[in-house]
Design a protein that fits this description.
Elements (H helix, E strand, L loop, with lengths): L3 E5 L5 E5 L4 H25 L4 H17 L1 E4 L1 H13 L4 E3 L1 H10 L4 E4 L3 E5 L8 E8 L4 E8 L7 H4 L3
Antiparallel strand pairs: 1-2, 1-3, 4-8, 5-6, 6-7, 7-8
Length: about 160
């Protein structure tokens, strides 16, 4: 029997893997872990008021995870959920500065260019084979961003924008 993954329902992130017989105990460990984080962030809010915005942001994330709960999924289910999470958003128009920063911060993983566009994938994946994908439309002078699966061309910006 394959290991299961304990994921949070809020952000679809993996906490741990376990055998089917260990699911309940693993979910309890996840809850305890996030409860400790919650107490830590609450303490930091009081102790470090200069960084209150950051600690509140962290606390809100942890609360959301605790409120949404945890579940056990197979690797195949996890991959499907991650794909839905990262690739379900529509392309967004970005500024030249955002585009150029992404191009220069780390060498691109992949570059594609033709008479209609210049497109690249950022040099580091977000998860699995999902990368930030940027495109410059030469005809309109506009810049775009979306997450894409570098192994699945149907998710690439040039396809999404019909270029």
């Amino acid at each position: 029997m394959e290991d299961l993954m304990i994921i949070d329902n809020a952000y679809v992130e993996c906490f741990t893997t376990c055998k089917e017989s260990e699911v309940s105990a693993s979910i309890e460990r996840a809850k305890e872990y996030y409860e400790r984080d919650k107490k830590c962030y609450e303490s930091h809010l009081a102790e470090y008021p200069d960084n209150a915005e950051y600690w509140q942001w962290q606390l809100d994330k942890v609360k959301k995870v605790l409120e949404s709960g945890f579940r056990a999924v197979t690797w195949e289910e996890f991959k499907k959920l991650q794909r839905e999470k990262w690739l379900s958003k529509e392309p967004e128009e970005v500024t030249y500065e955002q585009y150029n920063y992404a191009l220069e911060v780390v060498p691109p993983k992949k570059i594609c260019s033709n008479e209609r566009f210049f497109m690249f994938f950022v040099g580091e994946c977000t998860t699995m084979s999902f990368y930030g994908n940027y495109l410059y439309n030469k005809a309109t002078g506009k810049y775009y961003y979306a997450m894409a699966d570098i192994l699945d061309k149907s998710t690439w910006l040039d396809k999404m924008l019909n270029l």
